[in-house]
Amino acid sequence: MRKTKLVSVFIILAFVATFLAACGQKESNNASQTPAASAKAGESTKPTEAAKTDLSGKKIALIMQFNTGTFSSQYVEGVKEQVEKLGGKVTVFVADTDLAKMASNLDAAINQKFDGILIDHGTAEALEAGVKKALEKKIPVVSFDSILTVPGVTSLEQGDQKMAESTLEQLAKDAGGKGNIVKVWVAGFAPMERRQLAYQAFQKKYPDIKEVAAFGTAKDPALDTQTQMEAILKKYPNKGDITAVWTAWDEFAKGAARAIQQAGRTEIKVYGIDLSDEDLQLLQDPKSPWVASAAVDPKDIGRVQVRYLYQKLHGDQTPEKVVLDPVYVSRDQLPKDKQVNTTQLSEYVKGWGGSQQGYTDWLKAAEKK
Fold this sequence. Notes:
Layout: H1 2-45, H2 49-52, E1 59-64, H3 69-85, E2 89-94, H4 99-111, E3 116-120, H5 124-136, E4 141-144, E5 154-157, H6 160-175, E6 179-184, H7 190-205, E7 209-215, H8 221-235, E8 244-247, H9 250-263, E9 269-273, H10 277-284, E10 290-295, H11 298-314, E11 321-323, E12 327-330, H12 361-368
Parallel strand pairs: 1-2, 1-3, 3-4, 4-5, 5-11, 6-7, 6-8, 8-9, 9-10
Antiparallel strand pairs: 10-12
Helix pairs in contact: 3-11, 4-5, 6-7, 8-9
């Protein structure tokens, strides 16, 4: 009996050992297959390039300090055009030059959980806290003409010193290196401050060109400039009293040109910065004193800014600073027999429009989708 029990125990133990060995072999086989299985799983879950570029349906906030004049409106058109090409939607928040309202608009965009934020102008004092809050919530930010140095933010600018230099050098050349000029400029805006640096260098370089008046305001800039320019023309009524007017913004140039033209002071030339469709009409008018401007296509600015924002949404590395190359546009370059707009300007001015800055292969593919 005892012997029979022992045999039974041995049989059971043998069965258990065989079962465990089989299980061990199965586990071993599974273990040896795990890397391959994981690779297949990885292949099936890892997003394809097509999936990675599918960023359609994104909600984008555009936070603007102001939206004044046709330059700003064409800039907004460029933003909307590029976002819509990528399947997104833009909501524009305008602060009407009120920095406190601009900061509040930024907070509102964060609280409404927009996918990405574009900033147009503004100051670090007003925006830095809000921008940092956006980044903490993983909302990417790209700014244009803002004094922002927050890590993680890509900032665009137009090459403002180069724009100012090109118009001021032409002014000096046309004036023969001497004369009296009026400057229309306003402090407190990043692009204006950069343009002022070029103006200060110009004053040192051409001591025989004297500044007889300087003014400027960001509120109703074209109308205010026209009113103040009319007063200056009365103060300097004689031909030769004023050689030229240099303006640091196209809204200023419009106001100055209208005042001079209405006063019949055709000997005074106006040089500006920035360019829109409306500006081109004045530039092409042979009766207008506005003879030249330096600018970047405003629609291009909006397009490029959006491209860098979508790069961030895609997880790409983006530069901290992007400088857009401006071009100099004079009346002499433009046709005399027909009116052109900024879309057609590239036919006459090399380097205008159609910027490829910020484009990537995957962005172009996403547009086609």
